[in-house]
Input
Amino acid sequence: MRADLYPLLDAIQSPADLRQLERAQLPALATELRAFLVDSVSRTGGHLSSNLGTVELAIALHYVFNTPEDRLVWDVGHQSYAHKILTGRREDMARLRMKDGISGFPRRAESPYDTFGVGHSSTSISAALGMALAAKQKGETRKAVAIIGDGAMSAGMAFEALNNAGVADADMLVILNDNEMSISPPVGALNNILTRLMSGKTFNAARKVGRHMLGVAPPLLELARRAEEHVKGMITPGALFEEFGFHYYGPIDGHDLSALVPTLDNIKKLKGAQFLHILTRKGQGYPQAEENPILYHGVGKFDAETGITASVTAHAKRTCTQVFGDWLCDMAAADERLIGITPAMREGSGMVRFAEQFPDRYYDVGIAEQHAVTFAAGLAAEGLKPVVAIYSTFLQRAYDQLIHDVALQNLPVVFAIDRGGLVGADGATHHGAFDLSFLNCVPNMVIMAPADAAECRQMLSTAFTLDCPTAVRYPRGTSGNSGNGAILADHLEPLPVGKGVLLREGKEVALLAVGSMVAPALAAAETLNASVANLRFIKPLDVELVLQLAKSHALIVTLEENALIGGAGSEVARLLTEHGINTPLLQLGLPDRFIDHGEQGELLAELGLDAQGIVESVLKTRKNHSPTKNSGTP
Output
């Protein structure tokens, strides 16, 4: 990557350098930064569309505000690459989302400019409000800015924060980055001018004086307030945010630095809660991403000149996500009670075809995981059969609803849990490390984990037949054995509930594997001459199979791509204790720490959860001749 291609960008090592530029130079910097992003992300993979859409915003924020003294909080954070580049991490972009490289999201340990760790949506306003009020408590003068997208703004947590912030007497700014035009259309140059005027000192001073003068006559004040609302309603869509107690400005073109910079400069001087609405375009400046922003949302490596080709996106092996999408359509055709629900993850969860074929039975509830689960409970209470397609890491956000609204009432909701286990480059915020543990302790739940694509289809069918809450937990992509090309049956026959299967008979050592760990367990068994059982069901466990293996082997080993605490291994240990069996037990799984980003294979190897690591752990345990419990690689 030649430095002379980016003369302005090359001179910026921090926002202090950026603030030395003339305002007239900023559009040229934006062009360089956008070109660098395309070139860089095409080499590493990562989030592209969203980052191309926030180039000018990142430049304007660091140009106007005194970062890191002023706090910027990027909601979700997958749109923060330009922010990272402008804050001294340009060279680090070469190892973006790789093991020991920088994260794809803001991370406090990575830079003082990353003021808050993010990864899940709709947290920015709450965090920025906390920072603003902390500054007030400590007598410090600084600004706190939350940058949130229109999708994230739809979540309940964002509105809870708005409701609090509007009456909290905090100096903060919320920027709504509207890249889907879901709230309002752009209204052109006139609106930019109006917004700049409305954010200036003259307008705000006049508003304060007017309110003071009219305060002596309450009826007149109410009349004036209503008149102001009606007038503003004709030129802005901000009545809702004004009702929350914010001063609303916008919408303005988020790619027009000549409007964005002076507007931010005006707002920075104001006291209280401010709200700026900007309009941006995902994929801005890269035609392929502009045409298909969803395809370019999260990308692997690709040729920046030609863009993503079919050969890059095609998978030779079927993933459990694809299997789920096909099963959903087949089961919907067979049973009209099926309702499909997703919290804004239609493409990622494999529901595109279902949404097209069964539009009246498909519900995308937006980024609202809590609502998705209770909504499903309401459907189930009326005799329908809802299937909630949700990522493991996002199900965490709806845990109370899962317990209180679904499990407590024993309602037949099927949870199709994608991204169970390690997901790779997205790292700690997206690893599905805890679902088996937090589901295991919930009464009435049935929990399954498939070893391959064919078993995934069978388990989904099993879940659908049960009259209780069920979870089918499967990994991302083709990790483990999930994409092994297994032949899928056309039928929708269920499996016997609570029954595992013995896949290999060996001697001395019995490997009890869960889901994605079946494949490495079988590979390790060849070296160890071990027995291998696919547990299939984590709850209820196959008691007969576990006890049989414990009585006939010298060492039991449990394998799971889940936190060891509270997982399948813990349940096996409890079962052995209850039956007074003293067979040594080795538990292998995810250690009691957050796992960083990196390729799935190398992370599993580092944690000793590949075939070689399993062999080494078993041999070490047998050599020590003592019943040990392995808490994972520290």
Observations:
- The first strand starts at residue 46 and ends at 47.
- The two ends are 37 Å apart (CA to CA).
- Residues 376 and 387 are 8 Å apart (CA to CA).
- The first helix runs from residue 7 to 10.
